[in-house]
Protein: DUF3352 domain-containing protein
Organism: Cladocopium goreaui
Amino acid sequence: MRPGRADPLTCFSSRIVAVAALLAVVPVVALGARPSDQLFPSSTTAYVSVGDWPELRESWNKTQLSELMTDPVMEPFADDLRRQLDERFSVTEKRLGLSMDELKDLPTGEVSLGYIYGGRGEPSLVMLADVTDNIDAAEKMMADVRKKLEERGATRSTRDANGVEIVLYELPPDEETGERGTAAYALHDAVLAVADSGDTLASVLARFKGEHKDTLSTVKPYTAIMASCKEAAGDLVPHIRWFVDPFALVDAVQVASPPEEQQQAAAMIATLKKTGFTAIQGAGGFINAYSDGFELLHRTKVYAPGPYESSMKMLSFPDGGKLEPQVWVPIDVATYSSFHIDILNAFDNFGPLFDNLFGEGEEDEGLWEDVKQSLIEDPYGPQVDLREEIFVHMGTRVTIISDYELPITPTSQRRLIAIEAKNEPSLLAGVKKSLEVDETVEIRKFRDHTIWEMVEPEATEAPIEIQIEGLETDFGSSLEVDEMDEGVALPNAAVCVAYGNLFIASHPEIIEKILAKADDDARLLSDTVDYQQVLEQRDRVDGTGGFGIVFARLDEEFRANYELMRTGQMPQSETGLGTVLNDMLGSNEPGAVPRESEFDASKLPEYQAVRRYMGPSGAYMKNDQDGWFIVGYLLTRQGDSPAVLTAEGTTQPEASEAPVE
C-alpha cells in the first residue's frame, strides 16, 4: 500500500457506493445484446445483477420496509442520513464525477456490477447499465462528468477498444491520501459502462461481440449456483442475481490493505486452504421483492462439492425433519433457529484447523492432541477427556435462541445455545468435572438445577502472565493472558445441563427463564400465530426435510440494535451486530478507545412507530448434491399490535415499555 493511502474498507466502500446504491434502491434480461454474465470475465470475484430496473423499483415500493422509509416519522432521519452519506462518500463524486442522484435515474434495463481481480495488479470495479430509453440523458451526464473532473484538474484522454471509444480521466492526487485514480467511461450499444481501470473496461467491452469464451457464465461454481436457484424458483424470475468467489474476493480486498493486515489475512487464507476449506468455491443466489406472497424472498446456494478433506470434514449436517421448538423455548423469543450438525465428527476433525491457527508450522502438528492430553494429565487442571467424557455424549441437534431485557442497554441482548444430549447424566458429569476447578466459575442454584456462571476474577496486585509454550495466536504472537483486570471473554456466560440439553448462555438469567418455562408453562412457540404463518410458508416453498430452520420476529430481533443506534451506544454494544461492527472497526481490541458511532441516528423516531412495518421471517437449510441450499423469506406484518396470539386464542402481552438507559 502506498504511503498515505486511505483505509481499504473505506476505499472499497467509496468505489462501489454509487453503483451499489442503485442496486439497493431497486428478471434476468440481456444487457444490450448479451447477458451481463457473458460480459464479465471469469476473474470476477463478486457480481450483482438487477434485471428490469423499473419492475424492481415498483416491487420494492410495495413492501412494508419501503413504506417505513417513506413514513413521515422517518423523514427527519432520512434527510439527515442522506446528508451524512453525501458527506461521507463525496469521494465517489470526486473520483467519478457522478452523484448518486444522477445515477439512480439513468438505467432503464439491467444494471450489473462486477469486482474483478486476475491475481496481478489491483482489483477493478465495473458497472454496466442499460440506458436504452435514456441515451440523451446518459450523453448529457457524460458531458457533465467531463466538466466536473476537468475543473478538478483531471487529465482527459481517449482510447480505442475494438471500435469503442473509452474516455479516460487521470485524477490528481487526493488531498488527504495522496492517492491517484482513474475514471473510465464508455457508451456502447445503449449501455453505459463505468470503471476505475481503462484496461479492465476495455476487456469487458470486447466481450460485447461474443468472441471471448473466458466469461463469468462459464465458471462452474457460478453456473451450478444459478442452475440450482432456477430449478427451485421455477417460473419466478429473480429481481436480483448475485455471486461471490469467497477466496478470490478476499485476495482482491487484501491487495488494498495495509502491509500488516495483508500479512494477517494471508496467514488466515493459508490456514483455510491448508485445512480443506477451499472446497467452498462459491456462494450466490436469487432475490425477489414483493413476489409470490412474500415481502422479500431469497434463494441462496453455497457451492462446495466433495469429497472434503482435513477440517472441512467438520461441516457435516445430517437431515433431521421439521425441528419444531422444544418445550423449554419461551414463546416470546426474538429469534429461534435449530439445525443438525455431527458434533462428534466436528470435534474429531478440528485438530488440523487448531494446529494451523495456533501453531508455528509443521513442528506444531499434533498441537491439538497435546492440548487434549494436557487436560487429562495436568494435576492442576480438570483432568477431563473432552471427547470421551463430554462430546461423545452429545447428539446432533443445536438450537439457538435470543431475546432482550428492558430497559435497553449495551448488554440487553441475550443469546442461548442448546446442544442435544444423548446421555444427559454422563454429559452433566463431564461438564461438572471440567468446570468445578475453574476459579472464574461460580455455582448458581435455580430450583433443582445447577448453573455454572463465569465471573470476573478478583484483581491482583501485579499482572499475571500465562504463556503456553508453542501455542501461538494472532499468527505469530505468543498466547498470553495478562492484565487479569480485563476479565473473561464472556463475563456473564453461564452453563447448565437440563431437559436433555447442554445450555450455554450469554447471561445466567436466560437459562433461568427457559428452566422456569419448561417447569411451569406448557405453551409452545409452535402454537403462536406468527410461527405458524412462517411454518406454512416454509412448506409452500418446499421447506420439508432439510437440516435447519430459522424463525425470527424482525421487530423483536432488531429492537436492541435500533435503540442503541438511536441513543449513540452502538460502539459499546454487545449485541451480535454490535460485536461484529466493533471487531471490524477495531474497538474490541484490548485497551482500545471506544469508537464513535459511524452515523448519527439521533433523529430516528421512537421504536413503536417503526415496528409495525416489521413482520416475521423464516428460513430453511438443506443439503444439496454439491453444497447447501438456503431459502429465506420475510412476511407481511398483519396489523399494528405487537402482541402474539397463540393458537388457543390467548394473548402473549408485549413486554412493558421502559426507557432506554
